[in-house]
Amino acid sequence: METPIDRHKSVAQRIADGTLSIRSQKEFDNLLKIFPDHPVLFRSYGDFLKRQKDLFKAADAYGTAAALFIEEAVPLQSIVAKVLEWEIAKPAHEEVIAFHGMLSRIRSEEKPALNFWTQLSYSELLSFMLKLTLVRLSPEKRVHKAFEEENSLFFVVSGALRETVYMPEKRDRPAILDTVDLAENDFFGTIYPFTETVVSTSDIHTLTRVELIKITRSQLAAICNTHPDLNALLQELYQRREKAGEDAPRRTVRRNVRHHLPTQARIKVFREDKGQAPLLLEGFIDNISLGGVCVFLNQMPGRPLLSQLQGRNVKLIMKLISPSVDLAILGEIVWTKVFDVDNRKQDALGIQFKEMSDPDRELLEAYCSGGDGEQNLMWGLWESLVKK
Amino acid sequence: MANDKNTPTVWAVGGGKGGVGKSVISTLIAFWLSRSGKSTVLVDMDLGGANVHTLMGIRNPSRTLNDFVTKKVKSLDDVCIASEVDGLRLIVGAGEILSLANPKFAQKIKIIRAVYGLDADHVILDLGAGASFNILDFFLTAEKQISVVTPQPTSIQNAYAFLRSAVYRRLSQLTSRDLSLMTLIQTAMNPKNELQMRTIKELCHVIEELEGAGSVEALKKEIARIRPLVITNMVRDPDDKNAGRIVQLVAEKYLTIQADAACAVSYDRQVDRMISEMTPLVQLNRSSRVFADIHDICNRMMP
Question: Phi and psi at residue A334, in whole multiples of 5°?
């Protein structure tokens, strides 16, 4: 069965990667009514309230987000939400103990970092939470430069990054060995064991808007001095990453990069009452990813209010290169919004794809950006010819 | 005077991504041509979001392309609006007319024919963003094809995707009456196809094996006619110019087309300011580096 976060992933992704920004209380009210269990939305709501200086409500929103993240078994995001909550309202000792209890009950073998956070003792967790720095970066920012010393450990809270690994022996004229995409709950920065100084052969830069938590070598060493048991957890963290690397030499993560490729689209909105003909809408796709699309709707008399479209199942028909290559994908309208474009109101809706056959996925991928060979050549050239 | 009464030289400026400066480059090329004594018509073909008239300082155009398509006027010349530059006229896109955002086949043919019938030396088509088949068709009919890219990864991806779509669109058109060839081309459009056709060269090889050398030679000849100039816009430092070169190299390897990527347009804050202030771009300071770049582009396109 799909969990709520699965069903509404596109909203979460869009909020997290910065392509959907919600700027008013009213918009939040609407979205929270529709997605009452959405941790990313609550986290974003907390950030909004904090910017509005409504600190107590912000703390509440962060607290709710932390609890929902725990339900989704994602400890890192929960810890970050808790840190933000406790920055505003200092917690009681019992509260921290309760939070640690909830974290340690999460069971996840999926990623080394998930396991790491759930195994921390109460005092280790507290030490970490006091030292973590939250880093927010926009797309195309370099986080780490190749052939420089590694001094910090980073965990990815949200967003996507790319690690470009260079051949270590060609330091003067860097040659790319591999590229690895990093996503939520991945980590990077080899600073353990503390006695070894590691010069990284990787460049790491952000692909989308990214949130990271960072802890420096000296901070981590200090925590380990106070909590020697942490050494074993760190060892396991790095060993498991190495093993994962051996098992899958080229890690790939699902990353929905949005392509700004305006494309004509027709949308069949299915009615709730069976037997009724679907409603037909037309518009232009503003941007596409493999997860969904944002469509700007054409004006049309008799069209229902945007709010009435939310949550409806649709068939999206995209006109690709020729009329014979229409692509039809089933999806759900997961958000609606009125944008201000050139001083004109423009209705838009977000469709999350529900199911897609492999050939359709490949066709969409090809339409967006071509095949692997083209992509690899393009990025190889980008690294060597343009990137600063 | 026009070079040939019925056949102006048609330029198409496309490139996939929105916001890369297609309209600015189209406007400045049109301006340069008219200043060189060539009668020029700039046509805003961004039928879903026309904005070139704003760059020309025209707020409320009296006529648009829609007046021609809906037969309010007989000829495309009738919807041309004079600009403040001698010899430069403008056809305003019909952004508000949603039916035109996707003209039907007959409308498209009518527009293409009328463009070639304009009384001008040069016609510049400023295409909209994206790679819909209508945009590709306008691009493919032009004698001088320009694709605009900026030094950003997404722009490079989109510019390449645009050229890739253009090549496959051309192939689809050429083979529309041959079901087996058409099927092969549609298969090749999927980069993970089972026939291992990853490049146009490989596609041609498969076609040659299945259909014989005659079929493939005709297709190769048509592909060779796609020779776009890839202009890197908003260049801030020398390495930025390589964005166009990336598109050129990948297109050469995978699409076997010979693009030219020698031209670039420098970034100039004055251009941004003029757009924000709705100052006509033709008033751009003549000492701007952008002007010199446009001069190079036009000279390269008209040897």
Answer: -105, -15
> How far does the CA of residue A20 sit from the closest CA of chain B (Å)?
18
User: Which of the residues B246, B252, B254 would you substitute to probe the A interface, choosing the one with the greatest number of A C-beta atoms within 10 Å?
Assistant: B246
The CATH superfamily of B9-142+268-301 is P-loop containing nucleotide triphosphate hydrolases (3.40.50.300)
Using CB atoms, which residue from A261, A319, A372 is nearest to B16? A261
- Give the three-class secondary structure for A277: coil
Structure tokens at B273: 């300011």
For residue A377, list chain B residues with Cβ-Cβ distance below 8 A. Answer: 249-250, 253-254
pLDDT digit string (tens) for A77-107? 999 999 999 999 888 888 889 999 998 888 7
CB contact under 8 A, A378 and B51: no
pTM: 0.54
In a domain, A252, yes or no: no
| Partner-chain contact A323 B17, CB within 8 Å | no
Question: Which residues 6+ apart lie within 8 Å of B123 measured at CB?
Answer: B8, B9, B10, B11, B40, B41, B42, B43, B115, B116
What CATH number is attached to the domain comprising A20? 1.25.40
Residues ≥6 apart with Cβ < 8 Å to B293: B263, B264, B265, B266
Asked if A120 and A167 touch (Cβ cutoff 8 Å), the reply is no
The answer to whether residues A181 and A267 belong to one domain is no
Chain A closest-CA separation from residue B177 CA (Å): 13
- A118 within some domain: no
- Read off the pLDDT of residues B214-223 as tens digits, 9 standing for 90 and up: 878 888 888 8
Rg (alpha carbons) of chain A, rounded to whole number: 23
User: What count of CB pairs under 8 Å joins A to B?
Assistant: 134
- Residues A148 and A71 grouped into a single domain: no
What are the residue ranges spanned by the domains of chain B?
9-142+268-301, 152-228+246-260
Parent domain of A229? 133-247
Q: Which of A203, A221, A247 is the last residue of a domain?
A: A247
Q: Which residue has the tokens 């028909």?
A: A317
Q: Give contacts of B19 with chain A, Cβ < 8 Å.
A: 260
> Are A285 and A346 contained in the same domain?
yes
> CB–CB of A386 and B129 under 8 A?
no
Chain B residue nearest residue A359, CA to CA: B190
Does residue A80 fall inside a structural domain? Answer: yes
What is the tally of structural domains in chain A? 3
Structure tokens that stand for A137 in this block: 């970066």
Show which of A62, A87, A106 is a domain's final residue.
A106
User: 3-class DSSP state for residue B76?
Assistant: helix
ipTM of this complex: 0.84
CATH number at residue A231: 2.60.120.10
- What is the torsional sign of CA B48, B49, B52, B54? positive
Residue B37 has pLDDT above 90, yes or no: yes
> Across the interface, do B131 and A378 touch by the CB < 8 Å criterion?
no
Verify that A238 and A289 share a domain, yes or no. Answer: no
Q: What angle do CA A378, B292, B25 make, to 5 degrees?
A: 55
Arithmetic mean of pLDDT, B40-45: 93
Distance from CA of B130 to the nearest CA of A (A): 4
Contact between chains at A299 and B98 (C-beta distance less than 8 A): yes
